[in-house]
Design a protein that fits this description.
By secondary structure, this protein is mainly α. The chain has helices at about 5-20, 25-35, 40-50, 75-85, and strands at about 55-60, 65-70.
């Protein structure tokens, strides 16, 4: 279930959604897209999005140390917020 995002996180979600839409991406991709060269900050963004239910994560089939991310569609997340009330 999705929960509301703080403004700082929603802005980063929007940047990632614009870049990847329904496609999967890696931590490296997110770092490049967000133009934040501090890997720890990108990790915080991804972790926060996952915790709020707006990001899905799976392990890479070839290298299980790597994670593959995909964003929940905004319509679906908002619909979940409405049903949560």
């Amino acid at each position: 279930m999705s929960s509301p995002l703080p403004k700082w996180l929603m802005m980063r979600y929007a940047v990632l959604w614009k870049a990847y839409d329904k496609h999967e991406f890696s931590h490296h991709d997110a770092s490049y897209t967000l133009a934040e060269h501090q890997p720890s900050l990108v990790s915080v963004v991804l972790s926060s999005l996952k915790r709020h239910g707006w990001l899905m994560m799976r392990l890479d089939e070839i290298d299980s140390r790597k994670r593959i991310y995909s964003l929940k569609q905004p319509e679906r997340a908002i619909n979940e917020l409405e049903h949560k009330k």
